[in-house]
Amino acid sequence: MDETTPIQFREEVLKKFFIHIKSGDSFFVVGAPSVGKTRLMDFLMGDDPDAIRLGARPDHQRVKSHYLGEEAASKTWLARVDMNRLHSQSDWSFHFFELLLHTLLLTCNKNESSDENDEMKERLASLDADVIQSGNALKAHRFLEMAVDYLYQSYGIKICFLFDEFDDTYRGMPRELFAQLRGIRDANKYRVFYALFLRNLPDRLRNPKENESFYELISRNMVGIGLYSLQDTLYIIRQLENRHEHELSQKKREWICITSGGHPGLIQALFAIFRNQPGAVAQMENIQWFATQEPVREEFRKLWEGLFEDERSGLREFARGNKSAMSQDTGKLLAAKGLLKPYGSEMILFTPLFEQWLLKL
């Protein structure tokens, strides 16, 4: 079995994602816990974990080229900012802007070697080394601006900084840094832009008045990470079978597709139940039984912990049949996260398993 993730993986999300990349607009990506944000990011960046596990070299241009075309992809950098690499939050300005500058260097390192790329790498490394040696916040800010301008003016490179798992940083980062990020974007309109990967809406994480100019950049441009499509769900199930050397019947595959609702964590939980409990097949008509199994309950606990109270209360009432108790805004957010889905003219929970779990709260 070819373990390279199909290029159509998460197509419904990435089509929307690359609309913003093409336009040069900043945006945010929102998804519930355990819906596969990290896997999506790895796939997007060309760090396909399955291909790497089999010894293949990462292909950092593959997904970009598919959606942008080869020429535009080569001139568009997706710079993944790992906030775990932020050395200290006691001096936010220096460490944050040095991190962005260093991220550009790491992005450059991932490109194929060429005279042009080697020149960029040498310049970025020199700027980053000077900033680290100085320890100066203003220098870190100015050298980042210098790097951005150099990459575009010399090589026509556009940059999208991807801020992964950004919820805590969005809550706590000093407001002046948001203003400075907006300033960098305004000085390099359509050449520098930002994508925030979040578990919740920006205005729920922080009062928009505290970072108003930055909030205006992203607030109208949302990409929801829902659950897997049928095609992606089947692919993940086949992967699990191959990895664990445990083949399922077609009936079980189809049952997992329907019952998981395409939730990545739930797909793995249901697969584990079938693999580890031979008697589970006799319970396939008994949704209540599966809802009580620990792997399923654990997935729902993780999901629940990542929700705000209005989402929780809305879902509890929804499961009890009191759908009008949920506000329209909360319903839209839960639909964007894939926890509610359309069924005819109504909205339903993404899986009856979740309904059974909610009714026991």
Average pLDDT works out at 93
Gross geometry? globular
CATH topology of the largest domain: Rossmann fold
Tell me, what is the CATH class of the largest domain? Alpha Beta
Mind summarizing the main beta sheet? 5 strands, parallel
Oligomer type: single chain
Helical content band: 55-70%
Distance between the termini: 42 Å
Second rung of CATH, namely the architecture of the largest domain: 3-Layer(aba) Sandwich
Spatial order of strands in the largest sheet: 2-3-4-1-5
Radius of gyration: 22 Å
β-strand number: 7
Main structural class: alpha/beta
Q: Which residues sit in consecutive blocks of at least 5 with pLDDT less than 50?
A: none
Describe the overall structure.
- The structure is a single chain.
- This protein has 361 residues and is an alpha/beta fold.
- It has two domains: 11-225, 3-Layer(aba) Sandwich (Rossmann fold), CATH 3.40.50; 230-359, no CATH class.
- 58% of the residues lie in helices and 10% in strands.
- The chain is built from 20 helices and seven strands.
- The strands form two sheets. It has a five-stranded parallel beta sheet, sandwiched between helices. A two-stranded antiparallel ribbon has the order 6-7.
- The longest helix is centred in the middle third of the chain and has 20 residues, at 115-134.
- The chain starts with 10 loop residues before the first helix and ends with a helix.
